Amino acid sequence: MPFGKYKGRFLIDLPEHYIVWYKNKGFPNGKLGKQMELVYELQLNGLEDIVREIRIRF
């Protein structure tokens, strides 16, 4: 995350309530917004552990 309270964290590691808040407010424009929207979908479907596992291996 490039700014705010969670600056420096991977997007996949953001708390679900934070991503849901952005979903309701509106994701930022551009690449960051698209990535956050993808994280929302991953968290919604319980798939964030797959991304974390990939991150650890590489």
How would you describe this structure to a colleague?
The protein has 58 residues and is mostly helical. It has one domain (11-57). It has helices spanning 16-25, 30-44, 48-57. Helix 1 (16-25) crosses helix 2. The model has no long low-confidence stretch (mean pLDDT 93).
Q: Which characteristics define this entry?
A:
mainly alpha; 58 residues; 0% strand
Overall pLDDT score: 93
Count the domains: 1
Q: Could you tell me the number of beta strands?
A: 0
First-to-last CA distance: 19 Å
Structural class: mainly alpha
Give me the number of helical elements.
3
Radius of gyration: 11 Å
The fraction of residues in strands falls at: under 5%
- The level of helicity is 55-70%
Poorly predicted spans: none
Shape descriptor reads globular
The helix/strand series, from N terminus to C terminus, equals HHH
> Describe the biggest sheet?
none
Question: How would you summarize this macromolecular structure in one to three sentences?
Answer:
This protein has one domain (11-57). The chain contains three helices and no strands. It has helices at 16-25, 30-44, 48-57.
Write the layout of secondary structure elements.
Layout: H1 16-25, H2 30-44, H3 48-57
Helix pairs in contact: 1-2
